[in-house]
């Protein structure tokens, strides 16, 4: 997979990771839209790039983006003759609960692009990796993972 944007991974904010209204793939794509919207407040990322990165068909990517719009997570301004499509993230992720110690999840690009792992496995692996790096060992149990992911 060509990593033309040279990203090392994806940050999924706590609010998105724990949002019960989103399926795992929607969380990943919404977080990518947030990432690429950082400078301008919108992004023009192409479905083909997402297809190559996430190993999903363009039709599936398009369906997920439309679902995000239907759920009011993004606003889409369609492509016209002069400009590419613009995706505007609508959920403000800056106001995080100060009592939450776990602020989000970083998924390394090698894990994000691994077609042998499903999305839930990518989340669990990245959480274990995070806790292993912070505490030099991972002592998470199913109850801890359940608190974070469900």
Describe the protein's architecture and organization.
The chain has 150 residues and is of the alpha+beta class. It is built from seven helices and four strands. The chain has helices at residues 14-17, 24-36, 47-54, 58-70, 109-112, 119-135, 142-149, and strands at residues 9-13, 74-77, 86-89, 104-108. Helix 2 crosses helix 4 (58-70).
Tags for this model:
45% helix, 150 residues
Stretches where pLDDT is under 50 for at least 5 consecutive residues are: none
Could you give the order of strands across the largest sheet? Answer: 1-4
Major beta-sheet overview: 2 strands, antiparallel
Radius of gyration: 16 Å
Instruction: For the record, give the distance between the C-alpha atoms at the N and C termini, rounded to a whole number.
Output: 31 Å
Number of helices: 7
In short:
By secondary structure, the protein is α+β, with helices and mostly antiparallel strands.
Compile the SSE list and pairings.
Layout (H helix, E strand, L loop, with lengths): L8 E5 H4 L6 H13 L10 H8 L3 H13 L3 E4 L8 E4 L14 E5 H4 L6 H17 L6 H8 L1
Antiparallel strand pairs: 1-4, 2-3
Helix pairs in contact: 2-4, 3-4
């Amino acid at each position: 997979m060509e990593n033309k944007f040279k990203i090392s991974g994806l940050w999924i904010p706590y609010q998105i990771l724990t949002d019960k209204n989103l399926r795992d793939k929607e969380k990943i794509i919404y977080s990518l839209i947030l990432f690429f919207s950082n400078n301008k407040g919108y992004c023009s990322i192409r479905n083909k790039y997402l297809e190559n990165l996430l190993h999903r068909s363009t039709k599936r990517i398009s369906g997920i983006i439309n679902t995000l719009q239907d759920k009011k997570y993004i606003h889409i301004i369609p492509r016209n003759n002069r400009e590419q499509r613009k995706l505007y993230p609508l959920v403000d992720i800056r106001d995080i609960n100060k009592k939450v110690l776990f602020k989000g999840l970083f998924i390394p690009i090698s894990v994000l692009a691994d077609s042998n792992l499903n999305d839930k496995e990518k989340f669990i692996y990245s959480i274990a990796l995070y806790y292993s790096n912070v505490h030099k060992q991972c002592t998470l149990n199913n109850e801890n993972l359940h608190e974070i992911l469900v």
